[in-house]
């Protein structure tokens, strides 16, 4: 992860005041189990991942687009709450 991405994730997490934003003192265990599994699979990838890769890691049928769209929404929700970083190319990485 580049320094710029690290500083962006860190500053978003520290400065975020919108309702529902993840704050540094919030533990990952406070997330629902499905979101914890998503975070774990992104972390296990060790780098930027596409939605399809996360779906494969979770055992979803990735051949059907309708199965990936709800997952994309959950990944985006985690990115909005500063648990993940969504890159401009659409891939996701874990914020430190």
Question: Can you walk me through this structure?
Answer:
The protein has 96 residues and is mainly alpha-helical. The protein has one domain: Arc Repressor Mutant, subunit A, CATH 1.10.10. 52% of the residues lie in helices and 6% in strands. The protein is built from 4 helices and 2 strands. The chain has helices at 3-15, 33-45, 51-58, 65-80, and strands spanning 84-86, 92-94. A two-stranded antiparallel sheet has the order 1-2. A hairpin with a 5-residue loop joins strand 1 (84-86) and strand 2 (92-94). Helix 3 (51-58) packs across helix 4 (65-80). It is globular. The relative contact order is 0.20.
Average pLDDT figure: 81
Indicate the structural class.
mainly alpha
Summed up, the helix count is 4
Q: Order of strands across the widest beta sheet?
A: 1-2
Compute the CA-based radius of gyration.
13 Å
Q: Could you name the CATH class?
A: Mainly Alpha
The helix content, as a percent range, equals: 40-55%
Annotated CATH architecture:
Orthogonal Bundle
Number of strands: 2
The helix/strand series, from N terminus to C terminus, equals HHHHEE
Strand-residue proportion: 5-15%
Low-confidence stretches: 13-22
User: Could you say how many structural domains there are in total?
Assistant: 1
Shape: globular
Major sheet details: 2 strands, antiparallel
Q: Provide the CATH topology.
A: Arc Repressor Mutant, subunit A
Distance between the termini: 9 Å
